[in-house]
Amino acid sequence: MRKIVIGSGNQHKIEEIKAFFSDLEFDFEGLDPELELPEVIEDGKSYQENALKKARQRAEELNEIVLADDSGLSVEYLDGAPGIYSARFGGADLNDQEKYLKVLELLKGQPEAKRKAAFISVIALVDPFRNIEITVKGKCEGIIAKEPAGENGFGYDPIFYLPEYDKTMAQISQEEKNKISHRGRALQKMKTRIKESYN
User: Fold this and answer.
1) How far apart are CA 156 and CA 178, in angstroms?
2) What amino acid positions are annotated as catalytic residues?
3) Does pTM surpass 0.70?
4) Would you kindly state where each structural domain of the chain is located, as residue ranges?
5) pLDDT tens for each residue of 53-75
6) How many CB atoms within 10 Å of residue 32?
7) 149-158 pLDDT tens trace
């Protein structure tokens, strides 16, 4: 079975991606934690540039097919921030909770009309053997809640309110999330492209 390495150290993300692609005839594996790989400097100006840079660098280092993503939260009132800096918003040392509490603080007192937001994900696949590069994008629109809720998910999920569910992203099941989340939508597109490219 052919292998595709998920170029991420985020265990939540790895499990989510592996579960999504479980019906494909590929062996999806996370990065080996024993490997001491150099950090990928995410200096791109867009999600696509960063996702491709991660996938290209890891594919070259490992000589494997690599899947990588870059995703983030874009808040309208904050002019699109945290955006591509979502993972290190407020400083690299902050944990997930500290990051989303910072967003809530910046939106304090703002009405729902000014709390519109979107999760955006770009996924890139780089195959060094067949010289294939694929990128796809997924987007999920919602509203920044006034307070966090839910135990599922990770990152900014507890403050991302989905009006159609009357729940935050952290309150819905993984199955529901895979259908409507930014990453779920991007993964669905990637699954189609992988089937087309490797049939």
Assistant:
1) 16
2) 70
3) yes
4) 2-197
5) 999 999 999 999 999 999 999 99
6) 10
7) 999 878 999 9
